[in-house]
Amino acid sequence: MRPNRPVYLDNHATTPVDPRVLAAMRPWWEENFANPHSVEHAMGREAEEAVEAARTELAEVVGAEPREIVLTSGATESNNLAIKGAARFAAGQGTERRRIVTLATEHKCVLESVRDLAAEGFEPVLLPVGPDGLLDLDLLRREVDERTLLVSVMAVNNEIGVVQDLEAIGGIAKTAGALFHTDAAQAAGRIPLDVGAIGADLLSLSGHKIYGPKGIGALYVRRRPRVRLAPLFSGGGQERGFRSGTLPAPLVVGLGEAARIAATEALLDAGRIAGQRDRFLEALRAEVPEIRVNGSRERRVAGNLNLTFPGPVDAQAIMAAAPEVCVSTGSACSSAAVEPSYVLRALGIPEAEARATLRIGIGRFTSPADADRAAAALAAGWRQAMAGARG
After folding, report:
1. Which one of the record's GO molecular function terms can you name (predicted)?
2. DSSP classification of residue 163
3. What is the pTM of this model?
4. Which of 105, 111, 214, 280 has the fewest beta carbons under 10 Å from its own?
């Protein structure tokens, strides 16, 4: 690691590849680079076996069968396939269920997928959340009925880190006869996940959120009772016909290894990460006492802090004044937007305060020294930004 490297606290945007994952992938680039669908020869069969072993590792993380795991390019594709695929297949079968229920704080790819379906005759329903970022289950019960085709609720929010009550949400969807999809990209490896326990029909995963490679993800698709999807694009019919295209064997192997590590080390990771989070917050509050944590403190993943800084200050100015720390103002998928986070606005946070907010993502490789250095740098950055704002 190079000297004076910035402290990386943006683990919600992406996690670094675990060295063990990189080691597992390397032979599939250098030694056996065969197409895993070329099963006519030995190298192709060996690549196929590696892909299927990785599929099994991933299935175990969510309590699924290996054949229920459809490999994709990442959670954005998985979310699109789950939502659009379920809706379009149902429409082709003449369903009268046209309502798709989701939350105002979902990831952009979920919100845009739901909105796209409005042009195809579906009824999008975007539910609000409370000031703590959590869904009111009584509100969900009122909105989910015999008209509802699909309920899609993120397991762990990618900005404020809150954990929704998936088991209760899945139960409400099932009672109404609706499908239940959850975007679990930020949840895998951070909280226990079991598709049977939460009643999930569809569940999205991403490699680069669990210390695996970018460009690979998966969608769990329940077999019994069978969930049917219309594919997003045409091709050779790989992945049970749901997702055509040549599988990138090195990335799949990396995803499997990342899943294996997550399954065996999640509790250890969570305890260590929570310790660094608390250390960081205590040090930052010693310098900035009025800083506020957004979202439920009780129902959140260990590594997340969404922090609003006091005073007439802009988060971008704090970041500019503290270049030795890598943090963000919100979702990386929305970072080009000039408006403040729509997630924070959905919590009822005023625009000025939303603009003074940073997302902190502490991860597996964050050290106590990192936590101390980052807290000191951000406090100094806040003081500098405050001085600049006051002229």
Report:
1. transaminase activity
2. B
3. 0.96
4. 214
> 102: which strand partners?
126, 152
DSSP tag of 118:
H
Taking 3-state DSSP, the helix, strand and coil percentages for the chain, each rounded to the nearest 5, stand at 45, 15, 40
Closest CA to 220 of 244, 174, 184, 187: 184
How far apart CA 82 and CA 232 sit, in angstroms, is 10
- Tell me which residue has tokens 């675990």: 18
Closest C-alpha among 161, 121, 91 to residue 302:
161
Identical fold, 7-15+266-390 and 19-260: no
Short-list 170, 202, 172, CA closest to 184 = 202
Q: Which residue ranges make up each domain of the chain?
A: 7-15+266-390, 19-260
CATH number of 19-260: 3.40.640.10
- Overall fold of domain 7-15+266-390: Aspartate Aminotransferase, domain 1 (3.90.1150)
What confidence tens digit (pLDDT) does each residue in 12-51 have?
Answer: 999 999 999 999 999 999 999 999 999 999 999 999 999 9
Tokens representing 116? 């796209």
